[in-house]
Amino acid sequence: MSSDSPIITASAHSVPSYLNADNLGPWGIYLQQVDRVTPYLGSLARWVETLKRPKRALVVDVPIEMDDGTIAHFEGYRVQHNTSRGPGKGGVRFHQDVTLSEVMALSAWMSIKNAAVNVPYGGAKGGIRVDPRKLSRAELERVTRRYTSEINIIIGPNKDIPAPDVNTNEQVMAWMMDTYSMNEGSTSTGVVTGKPISLGGSLGRREATGRGVFVVGAEAARNLGLEIKGARIVVQGFGNVGSVAAKLFHEAGAKVIAVQDHKTALFDPAGLDVPALIEHVSHNGTIEGFRAETISAEQFWQTESEILIPAALEGQITAANAPHIKTRMVIEGANGPTTPEADDILRERNILVAPDVIANAGGVTVSYFEWVQDFSSFFWTEEEINQRLVRIMQEAFRSIWQVAQENKVTLRTAAFIIACTRILQAREMRGLYP
């Protein structure tokens, strides 16, 4: 078990003792966010401890036989944060730095995200501490199937529905669905979302998170009186979310002037050729080597822009770099990319932050569409899906904007007010059993 394992208790008034005060980690950051919203919950505040305790956290051993005949063990997690509003919902990530604290926080942010856009799910998340780039395809399949078998006892179409996340994709979801179905004795397409179209996946799912980032960015820009056409865009992370968001902003006439991935950062003041960059990444797995000026990480964060989109991992905008960021607004494509201290700095500098719990909720929204389609065995067109997605995202953002204006709080706090209210109302109405 990892060093951050003692995870269940959390003080209602302070960060738990097992968290380093100087480095709270993702779960500690989430607890701070809950503390900030508590004064706005009224009588529901008596239930707030519900939000600070995961409903269920499962740590599993994932042993597999490697191609060379040796036995390797990997640590896996599945955390269900809250299921008051419906079954757990959240992705599975394969990454060498995955920790229980991280998965717990991501599951909690999924609870907030699902409630903020008002889809009938609770929050869950999963992960395996593994570098998938070091595995063969056969080893990756064995890891996926063994992990699925280990968490089989807590997942299901009406209990907890996994989806793709960092370093997982349609193929991983197909293996998960097949493994679960074999154990159940019947095909269960609704146990995961983000599947291949041929196995009950939804049109538009792959682009949904990036499309949601664009929709929220466009709404936020409209409220600020900012014209998208000609706006300078900076994108950190050029995977599924960052590349799709960059493509949509590019198509809307914006200039994507800087992009960073795990290897390098590129800059072009005239605007990068986004379609060509996407093609380059599809062949090389990185933006490195693309025809543009290479800049340092420090230069990247100081690039002047109208919109900055962190679409990589959590904890990227910190108290160290927030004072030097030069942008009008931050649209969070990643989960938890901005620390609470950085949030305060950006607010003081009058930089708008559209938080992850709304900005990147497009993926789970279309995952909900996929789940509904699987249950009914009736599938919608991509145009219908995109129209429904845009409507839900716009309505959710407008509600959050209104709450922010009424309470004179940030969009993040406003999103938490709406989401936590919905979760705790459900908890209160359901009561305690037994």
UniProtKB/TrEMBL annotation:
<dbReference type="InterPro" id="IPR036291">
    <property type="entry name" value="NAD(P)-bd_dom_sf"/>
</dbReference>
<dbReference type="InterPro" id="IPR006095">
    <property type="entry name" value="Glu/Leu/Phe/Val/Trp_DH"/>
</dbReference>
<keyword id="KW-0560">Oxidoreductase</keyword>
<dbReference type="InterPro" id="IPR033922">
    <property type="entry name" value="NAD_bind_Glu_DH"/>
</dbReference>
<dbReference type="InterPro" id="IPR033524">
    <property type="entry name" value="Glu/Leu/Phe/Val_DH_AS"/>
</dbReference>
<dbReference type="GO" id="GO:0004352">
    <property type="term" value="F:glutamate dehydrogenase (NAD+) activity"/>
</dbReference>
<dbReference type="Pfam" id="PF02812">
    <property type="entry name" value="ELFV_dehydrog_N"/>
</dbReference>
<dbReference type="InterPro" id="IPR006096">
    <property type="entry name" value="Glu/Leu/Phe/Val/Trp_DH_C"/>
</dbReference>
<dbReference type="InterPro" id="IPR046346">
    <property type="entry name" value="Aminoacid_DH-like_N_sf"/>
</dbReference>
<dbReference type="InterPro" id="IPR014362">
    <property type="entry name" value="Glu_DH"/>
</dbReference>
<dbReference type="GO" id="GO:0006538">
    <property type="term" value="P:L-glutamate catabolic process"/>
</dbReference>
<dbReference type="Pfam" id="PF00208">
    <property type="entry name" value="ELFV_dehydrog"/>
</dbReference>
<dbReference type="InterPro" id="IPR006097">
    <property type="entry name" value="Glu/Leu/Phe/Val/Trp_DH_dimer"/>
</dbReference>
<comment type="similarity">
    <text>Belongs to the Glu/Leu/Phe/Val dehydrogenases family.</text>
</comment>
<protein>
    <recommendedName>
        <fullName>Glutamate dehydrogenase</fullName>
    </recommendedName>
</protein>
